[in-house]
Amino acid sequence: MKPENLNQLWDWIQNTELSFQIGATWVFPLLESIHVLSVVFLFSSILIVDLRIMRVSALNYPIQLVYKELVPWSWAAFAISCMSGLGLFISRPGAYAENPAFQIKMCLLLLAGVNLALFKLKSSNDKAHAEDVNQYAFSREEYQACLSVLIWASVIFAGRWIGHIN
Amino acid sequence: MNIPIMIELIINIIQESALREFVLWGLLNVPGLPPILQSIHILAVATLFASIGMINLRFLRLALPSQSPNEMIIRLAPWMWASLLTLLLTGSAFVIARPARYFYNPIAGIKLLCLTIAICLAALLFRFAKRRPNYWESSNSRYKLAQGISLCSISLWICTVFAGRWIAYLDYLF
Q: Could you tell me how far CA B27 lies from the centroid of its own chain?
Protein backbone atom coordinates (compact mmCIF):
# COMPACT_ATOMS: atom_id res chain seq x y z
CA MET A 1 0.00 0.00 0.00
CA LYS A 2 1.33 3.47 -0.95
CA PRO A 3 1.92 6.04 1.81
CA GLU A 4 -0.74 8.38 0.38
CA ASN A 5 -3.25 5.52 0.41
CA LEU A 6 -2.33 4.80 4.00
CA ASN A 7 -2.84 8.45 4.92
CA GLN A 8 -6.26 8.32 3.25
CA LEU A 9 -7.06 5.24 5.29
CA TRP A 10 -6.01 6.92 8.55
CA ASP A 11 -8.08 10.00 7.61
CA TRP A 12 -11.08 7.85 6.83
CA ILE A 13 -10.77 5.99 10.15
CA GLN A 14 -10.35 9.23 12.08
CA ASN A 15 -13.49 10.66 10.51
CA THR A 16 -15.66 7.76 11.61
CA GLU A 17 -18.14 8.12 14.46
CA LEU A 18 -16.34 5.35 16.38
CA SER A 19 -13.05 7.24 16.28
CA PHE A 20 -14.75 10.39 17.56
CA GLN A 21 -16.58 8.52 20.31
CA ILE A 22 -13.35 6.96 21.55
CA GLY A 23 -11.16 10.05 21.26
CA ALA A 24 -13.53 12.63 22.72
CA THR A 25 -15.19 10.74 25.55
CA TRP A 26 -14.40 8.71 28.67
CA VAL A 27 -13.99 5.64 26.42
CA PHE A 28 -10.36 6.60 25.77
CA PRO A 29 -9.22 6.49 29.42
CA LEU A 30 -11.31 3.35 29.93
CA LEU A 31 -9.58 1.62 27.00
CA GLU A 32 -6.22 2.90 28.22
CA SER A 33 -6.84 1.47 31.70
CA ILE A 34 -7.86 -1.90 30.22
CA HIS A 35 -4.77 -1.78 27.98
CA VAL A 36 -2.42 -1.12 30.92
CA LEU A 37 -4.07 -3.83 33.03
CA SER A 38 -3.90 -6.43 30.26
CA VAL A 39 -0.26 -5.54 29.53
CA VAL A 40 0.48 -5.94 33.25
CA PHE A 41 -1.13 -9.42 33.25
CA LEU A 42 0.67 -10.31 30.01
CA PHE A 43 4.09 -9.25 31.27
CA SER A 44 3.60 -10.88 34.67
CA SER A 45 2.67 -14.25 33.17
CA ILE A 46 5.58 -14.08 30.69
CA LEU A 47 7.93 -13.02 33.48
CA ILE A 48 7.06 -16.05 35.62
CA VAL A 49 7.73 -18.47 32.75
CA ASP A 50 10.92 -16.70 31.68
CA LEU A 51 12.29 -16.50 35.23
CA ARG A 52 11.63 -20.23 35.59
CA ILE A 53 13.51 -20.92 32.36
CA MET A 54 16.35 -18.70 33.59
CA ARG A 55 16.41 -20.74 36.85
CA VAL A 56 15.65 -17.69 38.96
CA SER A 57 12.31 -18.74 40.43
CA ALA A 58 9.91 -21.70 40.86
CA LEU A 59 12.72 -24.26 40.55
CA ASN A 60 10.54 -26.94 42.18
CA TYR A 61 8.22 -26.94 39.20
CA PRO A 62 8.97 -28.25 35.68
CA ILE A 63 9.31 -25.59 32.99
CA GLN A 64 6.69 -27.19 30.75
CA LEU A 65 4.16 -27.28 33.58
CA VAL A 66 4.66 -23.60 34.49
CA TYR A 67 4.42 -22.74 30.79
CA LYS A 68 1.28 -24.82 30.29
CA GLU A 69 -0.47 -23.32 33.30
CA LEU A 70 0.25 -19.71 32.35
CA VAL A 71 -0.04 -19.76 28.59
CA PRO A 72 -3.86 -19.29 28.62
CA TRP A 73 -3.38 -16.18 30.79
CA SER A 74 -0.74 -14.83 28.41
CA TRP A 75 -2.88 -15.33 25.32
CA ALA A 76 -6.01 -13.92 26.96
CA ALA A 77 -4.09 -10.86 28.18
CA PHE A 78 -2.47 -10.48 24.75
CA ALA A 79 -5.86 -10.64 23.00
CA ILE A 80 -7.37 -8.03 25.36
CA SER A 81 -4.34 -5.75 25.02
CA CYS A 82 -4.54 -6.02 21.20
CA MET A 83 -8.25 -5.15 21.15
CA SER A 84 -7.90 -2.25 23.61
CA GLY A 85 -4.77 -1.08 21.78
CA LEU A 86 -6.66 -1.14 18.48
CA GLY A 87 -9.38 0.95 20.08
CA LEU A 88 -6.81 3.51 21.21
CA PHE A 89 -5.19 3.49 17.75
CA ILE A 90 -8.54 4.19 16.05
CA SER A 91 -8.89 7.46 18.01
CA ARG A 92 -5.88 9.03 16.25
CA PRO A 93 -4.53 6.57 13.65
CA GLY A 94 -2.44 9.06 11.65
CA ALA A 95 -0.72 10.49 14.71
CA TYR A 96 0.04 7.04 16.13
CA ALA A 97 1.30 5.65 12.82
CA GLU A 98 3.79 8.53 12.54
CA ASN A 99 4.86 8.32 16.19
CA PRO A 100 8.40 6.79 16.38
CA ALA A 101 7.68 5.25 19.81
CA PHE A 102 4.60 3.52 18.38
CA GLN A 103 6.62 2.25 15.41
CA ILE A 104 9.33 0.91 17.75
CA LYS A 105 6.64 -0.74 19.90
CA MET A 106 5.19 -2.53 16.85
CA CYS A 107 8.67 -3.70 15.78
CA LEU A 108 9.35 -4.98 19.30
CA LEU A 109 6.04 -6.88 19.31
CA LEU A 110 7.06 -8.50 16.04
CA LEU A 111 10.44 -9.37 17.53
CA ALA A 112 8.74 -10.88 20.60
CA GLY A 113 6.61 -13.01 18.28
CA VAL A 114 9.66 -14.22 16.34
CA ASN A 115 11.46 -15.00 19.61
CA LEU A 116 8.49 -17.02 20.86
CA ALA A 117 8.14 -18.86 17.53
CA LEU A 118 11.84 -19.74 17.53
CA PHE A 119 11.63 -20.86 21.15
CA LYS A 120 8.67 -23.15 20.45
CA LEU A 121 10.14 -24.48 17.21
CA LYS A 122 13.51 -25.30 18.75
CA SER A 123 11.92 -26.74 21.90
CA SER A 124 9.60 -29.02 19.97
CA ASN A 125 12.53 -30.22 17.85
CA ASP A 126 14.54 -30.95 20.94
CA LYS A 127 13.73 -34.52 21.87
CA ALA A 128 15.68 -34.55 25.10
CA HIS A 129 13.80 -31.51 26.32
CA ALA A 130 10.44 -33.05 25.47
CA GLU A 131 11.25 -36.29 27.22
CA ASP A 132 12.51 -34.86 30.48
CA VAL A 133 10.78 -31.65 31.44
CA ASN A 134 12.59 -31.56 34.77
CA GLN A 135 15.95 -31.13 33.08
CA TYR A 136 17.32 -27.65 33.49
CA ALA A 137 16.97 -25.52 30.39
CA PHE A 138 19.73 -25.27 27.87
CA SER A 139 21.72 -22.10 27.61
CA ARG A 140 19.99 -21.16 24.36
CA GLU A 141 16.62 -21.28 26.08
CA GLU A 142 17.90 -19.21 28.96
CA TYR A 143 19.21 -16.59 26.55
CA GLN A 144 15.88 -16.56 24.75
CA ALA A 145 13.98 -16.17 28.03
CA CYS A 146 16.26 -13.29 28.99
CA LEU A 147 15.72 -11.73 25.56
CA SER A 148 11.97 -12.20 25.97
CA VAL A 149 11.94 -10.28 29.29
CA LEU A 150 14.04 -7.50 27.73
CA ILE A 151 11.80 -7.25 24.66
CA TRP A 152 8.58 -7.11 26.69
CA ALA A 153 10.04 -4.58 29.11
CA SER A 154 11.05 -2.50 26.08
CA VAL A 155 7.49 -2.81 24.71
CA ILE A 156 6.25 -1.25 27.97
CA PHE A 157 8.90 1.50 27.74
CA ALA A 158 8.00 2.26 24.12
CA GLY A 159 4.30 2.20 24.98
CA ARG A 160 4.76 4.75 27.74
CA TRP A 161 6.85 6.92 25.43
CA ILE A 162 4.04 7.20 22.85
CA GLY A 163 2.22 9.75 25.00
CA HIS A 164 5.37 11.81 25.47
CA ILE A 165 6.21 12.20 21.77
CA ASN A 166 4.00 14.52 19.73
CA MET B 1 -6.74 20.52 63.24
CA ASN B 2 -9.18 19.57 60.50
CA ILE B 3 -8.24 17.50 57.46
CA PRO B 4 -8.26 20.21 54.71
CA ILE B 5 -5.91 22.39 56.77
CA MET B 6 -3.65 19.40 57.43
CA ILE B 7 -3.53 18.56 53.70
CA GLU B 8 -2.67 22.17 52.88
CA LEU B 9 0.07 22.10 55.47
CA ILE B 10 1.56 18.91 54.01
CA ILE B 11 1.40 20.38 50.49
CA ASN B 12 3.17 23.55 51.69
CA ILE B 13 5.88 21.55 53.44
CA ILE B 14 6.50 19.49 50.29
CA GLN B 15 6.38 22.53 47.99
CA GLU B 16 8.92 24.43 50.01
CA SER B 17 11.29 21.50 50.48
CA ALA B 18 14.68 21.14 48.82
CA LEU B 19 13.70 17.60 47.83
CA ARG B 20 10.83 18.91 45.71
CA GLU B 21 13.16 21.37 44.01
CA PHE B 22 15.60 18.57 43.24
CA VAL B 23 12.89 16.17 41.95
CA LEU B 24 11.24 18.87 39.85
CA TRP B 25 14.59 19.87 38.38
CA GLY B 26 15.25 16.22 37.48
CA LEU B 27 11.85 15.70 35.88
CA LEU B 28 12.16 18.88 33.83
CA ASN B 29 15.81 18.66 32.85
CA VAL B 30 16.82 14.99 32.62
CA PRO B 31 15.82 13.94 29.09
CA GLY B 32 13.07 11.30 29.15
CA LEU B 33 12.99 10.95 32.94
CA PRO B 34 9.15 11.14 33.32
CA PRO B 35 8.40 8.30 30.84
CA ILE B 36 11.34 6.28 32.21
CA LEU B 37 9.95 6.52 35.76
CA GLN B 38 6.43 5.77 34.52
CA SER B 39 7.68 2.70 32.62
CA ILE B 40 9.56 1.43 35.68
CA HIS B 41 6.33 2.03 37.65
CA ILE B 42 4.35 -0.17 35.22
CA LEU B 43 7.07 -2.86 35.27
CA ALA B 44 6.90 -2.85 39.08
CA VAL B 45 3.10 -3.24 38.88
CA ALA B 46 3.64 -6.23 36.58
CA THR B 47 6.11 -7.77 39.04
CA LEU B 48 3.58 -7.15 41.79
CA PHE B 49 0.95 -9.04 39.78
CA ALA B 50 3.50 -11.80 39.13
CA SER B 51 3.84 -12.20 42.91
CA ILE B 52 0.79 -11.30 45.04
CA GLY B 53 -1.53 -11.28 41.99
CA MET B 54 -0.62 -14.86 41.12
CA ILE B 55 -0.87 -15.93 44.79
CA ASN B 56 -4.42 -14.50 44.84
CA LEU B 57 -5.29 -16.24 41.57
CA ARG B 58 -3.81 -19.49 42.91
CA PHE B 59 -6.03 -19.35 46.01
CA LEU B 60 -8.98 -18.70 43.71
CA ARG B 61 -7.92 -21.75 41.65
CA LEU B 62 -7.60 -19.63 38.51
CA ALA B 63 -3.86 -19.99 37.87
CA LEU B 64 -0.89 -22.24 38.60
CA PRO B 65 -2.92 -25.16 40.07
CA SER B 66 0.19 -27.34 40.52
CA GLN B 67 1.91 -24.85 42.83
CA SER B 68 1.45 -24.83 46.59
CA PRO B 69 -0.02 -21.50 47.81
CA ASN B 70 2.10 -21.60 50.96
CA GLU B 71 5.30 -22.24 49.02
CA MET B 72 4.33 -19.44 46.62
CA ILE B 73 3.87 -17.01 49.51
CA ILE B 74 7.29 -17.82 51.00
CA ARG B 75 8.98 -17.64 47.58
CA LEU B 76 7.22 -14.57 46.18
CA ALA B 77 6.92 -12.33 49.26
CA PRO B 78 10.34 -10.65 48.65
CA TRP B 79 9.29 -9.95 45.03
CA MET B 80 6.15 -8.24 46.26
CA TRP B 81 7.93 -6.05 48.80
CA ALA B 82 10.62 -5.12 46.25
CA SER B 83 7.90 -4.19 43.74
CA LEU B 84 6.10 -2.07 46.32
CA LEU B 85 9.32 -0.25 47.20
CA THR B 86 9.94 0.47 43.50
CA LEU B 87 6.35 1.67 43.13
CA LEU B 88 6.75 3.94 46.13
CA LEU B 89 9.98 5.46 44.83
CA THR B 90 8.82 5.99 41.24
CA GLY B 91 5.34 7.15 42.22
CA SER B 92 6.45 9.52 44.96
CA ALA B 93 8.68 11.41 42.49
CA PHE B 94 5.56 12.69 40.72
CA VAL B 95 3.69 13.39 43.99
CA ILE B 96 6.66 15.37 45.38
CA ALA B 97 7.00 17.34 42.14
CA ARG B 98 3.33 18.35 42.02
CA PRO B 99 1.75 17.63 45.42
CA ALA B 100 -1.38 19.75 44.88
CA ARG B 101 -2.27 17.75 41.76
CA TYR B 102 -2.41 14.53 43.79
CA PHE B 103 -3.54 15.70 47.23
CA TYR B 104 -6.59 17.47 45.79
CA ASN B 105 -7.39 14.64 43.36
CA PRO B 106 -10.12 12.28 44.67
CA ILE B 107 -8.98 9.51 42.30
CA ALA B 108 -5.50 9.65 43.83
CA GLY B 109 -7.19 9.27 47.21
CA ILE B 110 -9.12 6.22 45.97
CA LYS B 111 -5.88 4.76 44.61
CA LEU B 112 -4.12 5.24 47.94
CA LEU B 113 -7.05 3.71 49.84
CA CYS B 114 -7.23 0.65 47.55
CA LEU B 115 -3.44 0.26 47.73
CA THR B 116 -3.36 0.46 51.52
CA ILE B 117 -6.13 -2.13 52.00
CA ALA B 118 -4.57 -4.43 49.37
CA ILE B 119 -1.18 -4.26 51.13
CA CYS B 120 -2.84 -5.04 54.48
CA LEU B 121 -4.62 -8.06 52.97
CA ALA B 122 -1.37 -9.31 51.43
CA ALA B 123 0.43 -8.85 54.77
CA LEU B 124 -2.36 -10.84 56.45
CA LEU B 125 -1.96 -13.73 54.00
CA PHE B 126 1.84 -13.67 54.37
CA ARG B 127 1.85 -13.37 58.16
CA PHE B 128 -0.22 -16.47 58.82
CA ALA B 129 1.50 -18.50 56.08
CA LYS B 130 4.91 -17.71 57.56
CA ARG B 131 3.82 -18.32 61.14
CA ARG B 132 2.58 -21.85 60.44
CA PRO B 133 3.36 -23.89 57.30
CA ASN B 134 0.25 -24.69 55.26
CA TYR B 135 -1.88 -22.52 57.55
CA TRP B 136 -4.33 -21.56 54.82
CA GLU B 137 -4.65 -25.14 53.57
CA SER B 138 -5.00 -26.81 56.95
CA SER B 139 -8.80 -26.57 56.98
CA ASN B 140 -11.60 -25.90 54.57
CA SER B 141 -12.80 -22.81 56.43
CA ARG B 142 -9.31 -21.28 56.41
CA TYR B 143 -9.00 -21.93 52.68
CA LYS B 144 -12.37 -20.28 52.09
CA LEU B 145 -11.19 -17.29 54.13
CA ALA B 146 -7.99 -17.12 52.05
CA GLN B 147 -10.14 -17.21 48.91
CA GLY B 148 -12.26 -14.33 50.22
CA ILE B 149 -9.14 -12.33 51.06
CA SER B 150 -7.69 -13.13 47.62
CA LEU B 151 -10.84 -12.05 45.81
CA CYS B 152 -10.86 -8.72 47.66
CA SER B 153 -7.11 -8.37 47.20
CA ILE B 154 -7.00 -8.94 43.41
CA SER B 155 -10.04 -6.66 42.96
CA LEU B 156 -8.28 -3.92 44.94
CA TRP B 157 -5.05 -4.31 42.94
CA ILE B 158 -7.06 -3.98 39.70
CA CYS B 159 -8.86 -0.90 41.12
CA THR B 160 -5.46 0.55 42.04
CA VAL B 161 -4.22 0.15 38.44
CA PHE B 162 -7.43 1.69 37.07
CA ALA B 163 -7.35 4.58 39.54
CA GLY B 164 -3.70 5.17 38.66
CA ARG B 165 -4.65 5.74 35.03
CA TRP B 166 -7.72 7.83 35.84
CA ILE B 167 -5.79 10.33 37.98
CA ALA B 168 -4.96 12.10 34.71
CA TYR B 169 -8.56 11.97 33.48
CA LEU B 170 -10.39 13.49 36.43
CA ASP B 171 -12.35 15.84 34.14
CA TYR B 172 -14.22 12.92 32.60
CA LEU B 173 -15.61 11.91 35.98
CA PHE B 174 -16.35 15.12 37.86
A: 22
Contact B45, B141 (CB under 8 A): no
Q: Which of A29, A44, A58 shows the shortest C-beta gap to B46?
A: A44
- CB B64 to CB A70 under 8 A? yes
Neighbours of B128 (CB within 10 A): 17
Q: What residues in A contact B169, CB-CB < 8 Å?
A: 26, 28-29
- B65 in contact with A at a CB cutoff of 8 Å? yes
Option in B38, B43, B54 nearest A48 (CB): B54
> Between A27-53 and B33-48, two packed helices, what is the crossing angle to 10 degrees?
60
Query: Using an 8 Å Cβ cutoff, are B138 and B129 in contact?
Result: no
As a whole number of angstroms, the distance between CA B127 and CA A104 comes to: 44
Residue B2 DSSP symbol:
-
How many domains in chain B? 1
ipTM: 0.90
- Residue among B46, B49, B165 whose CB faces A33 most closely: B165
Q: Which residues of B touch A166 (CB under 8 A)?
A: none
**What string of pLDDT tens digits covers the 174 residues of chain B?**
688 899 999 999 999 999 999 999 999 999 999 999 999 999 999 999 999 999 999 999 999 999 999 999 999 999 999 999 999 999 999 999 999 989 999 999 999 999 999 999 999 999 999 988 889 999 999 999 999 999 999 999 999 999 999 998 886 666
Distance from CA of B44 to the nearest CA of A (A): 9
**Alpha-carbon gap, residue B94 to B23, rounded angstroms:** 8
**Residue-wise DSSP of A80-104:** HHHHHHHHHHHHSHHHHHH-HHHHH
